[in-house]
Design brief:
This protein is of the alpha+beta class. The protein is built from nine helices and eight strands.
Length: 294
């Protein structure tokens, strides 16, 4: 049904008891029509304002939902004003620190459980770990199964986030009586941020040889019993040499790389007895490195 608005105009003589004549009635009719037009314009404007409010609310809601899938921070890195401007082929280069996080032996853990249980476990632990990345200014590029690829503007933030993430994972494991261990690899360098795919399916991601390097560094964690490994250049840029306990592990060859990469283990987040043993080995390791470097 069509919605209509009605107004009531009450007219009365104050200074006379005479009845209204035709001239009075004509004047009142003219006034009534003018008031009706003004009233209709007011109602129309009010409806327009409400429509704009709903549109703005819908847009804000859309952008809020979209931000859960594509972080606003990565949209800004491409110099977009909003997600509606995204198109395949655009590129922007940035110097970033790349963090690759992976749960150790998760394949064997998932093989023993139903897929629904695996999904619940992943979501449960990611809910605890992911906010730490944002807390330290990081951007989650993507979830890769049980792993996370994240980007940081500063090496310091990436390393400190890694320490807290390892601590949080230990707290989570103790609270849930489900032992989970993780490895983290960090490196820094030029990264290309670009929307990948085609018009019907686009994903904004980081493309760089440094992304692969972060993954390779993380794979060394299990080999040497480390939780956090950083290449020496990134660690030097962080300014954390005197703040976080660490040890140089030396130069390692990595699959697909011609030259070896020099790496540092940050073990500030290790349990106390492990931290003591690693700290005791620093002088011996440094002596070995001096011989090798000669």
């Amino acid at each position: 049904t069509e919605e209509k608005s009605y107004g009531i105009l009450i007219v009365d003589r104050v200074l006379s008891n005479k009845a209204l004549n035709e001239r009075d009635k004509q004047f009142i009719e003219i006034i009534s029509r003018q008031l009706a037009v003004a009233l209709e314009m007011h109602i129309s404007k009010r409806r327009e304002i409400e429509s704009y409010k709903q549109l703005i609310a819908s847009k804000d809601q859309f952008l809020s939902i979209a931000n859960r899938f594509v972080p606003w921070e990565i949209i800004k890195m491409l110099n977009y004003k909003n997600i509606l401007e995204v198109k395949v082929g655009d590129q922007a280069k940035h110097n970033l620190t790349i963090q690759f996080w992976d749960i150790r032996d998760f394949t064997s853990i998932s093989d023993e459980q139903q897929s629904t249980d695996v999904a619940s476990l992943l979501n449960s632990y990611l809910k605890e770990i992911s906010p730490i990345i944002r807390q330290f200014g990081g951007i989650i590029d993507k979830y890769i199964g049980d792993g996370i690829l994240s980007l940081y503007h500063e090496p310091r933030d990436g390393i400190l986030a890694s320490v807290r993430m390892i601590e949080k994972l230990r707290e989570y494991s103790l609270a849930n009586s489900f032992p989970l261990r993780s490895g983290v690899g960090l490196t820094s360098g030029e990264v290309t941020i670009t929307p990948m795919g085609y018009e019907e399916r686009i994903q904004i991601t980081a493309i760089s040889d440094r992304v692969n390097t972060a993954s390779r560094i993380e794979s060394i964690c299990k080999l040497v019993g480390a939780s956090i490994i950083v290449d020496t250049d990134t660690f030097a840029l962080s300014g954390l040499e005197n703040s976080l306990i660490h040890r140089r592990l030396g130069r390692f060859a990595m699959r697909g790389k011609k030259s070896k990469i020099d790496i540092v283990e940050v073990f500030a987040s290790d349990e106390f007895h492990i931290r003591e043993m690693k700290e005791a080995s620093i002088d011996r390791l440094n002596a070995v490195h001096r011989l090798v470097d000669q």
